[in-house]
Amino acid sequence: MSVAPRISQRISSRAVRFAGVAAAATALTLGVAGSASACDISEFTAKAGCEGQQGVISVTDVDASGTPATVTVFRTSGGSEEQVGSQVVKGTKEGATITFKEDWKPGATYRVHVKTDRFNVDDDIKDGVTAPATACATEKPSTPPTSAAPSTSTPAAKPTPSESAPAAAPAPSNSASPAGSSDLAETGASSNTPVIAGIAALLVVAGGGVTFALRRKGSAQK
User: Fold this and answer.
1) Which residues, 6 or more positions from 133, have their beta carbon under 8 angstroms from its beta carbon?
2) What are the CA-CA distances from residue 106 to residues 45, 91, 127, 149, 174 (Å)?
3) pLDDT digits over 161-196, tens only?
4) Cβ-Cβ contacts under 8 Å for 56 (sequence gap 6 or more)
């Protein structure tokens, strides 16, 4: 066998070994890089806070791989749970934050669950969330300036029908006038007219007799 074929075989075997080592190194590098960028529950944090007057539960994801994660918040009380809400977040190296509106009470507790389709993350954030001891400040309604009440004049009292109605005319009296009184408004003869006429006639006769007697007495004295 010549020397040339042997040299050629040695070069080929060395080239194969070098290629295998390079491939193994590349695979190891990719594996380490993939593990470093994998999503993990430790990359999620949650807390209770306020946005103005509104209470919120905030969840922050610092997963640099940007793996979509479904975050669900539960309110816990006396061994029971009530879901507050569920949202999807894509983490960033700087951190991506989502908020859930929740009018939490001081000291209330919450469980925050995270689930991803990649990297098989399906776990709760450690220790959950406990609301602060002080609730969000409530805005006091502004009191409008008080304006003087408009003066209202009392209308003059309207006269009652008894005051405005003219006095009723007295009913005509049907009682007879007392005897001996003259009523100029009456017309016609009264029932006492014959008696009065008789008395007048007697007075006339008596007066004439007295006059005649005085004349005779005067003539006798002469």
Assistant:
1) 106, 107
2) 20, 29, 17, 44, 98
3) 555 555 555 555 555 444 444 444 445 555 667 778
4) 48, 49, 50, 99, 100, 101, 102
Round to whole Å and give the CA distance between 98 and 92. Answer: 12
> What span, in angstroms and rounded, lies between the C-alpha atoms of 57 and 84?
9
pLDDT of residue 73: 98
Q: What phi-psi label fits residue 66: left (phi over 0), alpha (psi between -120 and 50 degrees) or beta? A: left
Instruction: Specify the amino acid at residue 178.
Output: P
Over its C-alpha atoms, the chain yields an Rg (Å, rounded) of 66
Q: Where are the beta strands (DSSP E) in 64-188?
A: 68-77, 80-90, 96-101, 109-116, 122-124, 129-130
| Cα 154 versus chain centre, distance | 34
* 54-61, strands of its sheet edge to edge: 44-51, 54-61, 96-101
Q: Convert the pLDDT of each residue in 90-109 to its tens digit.
A: 999 999 999 999 999 999 99
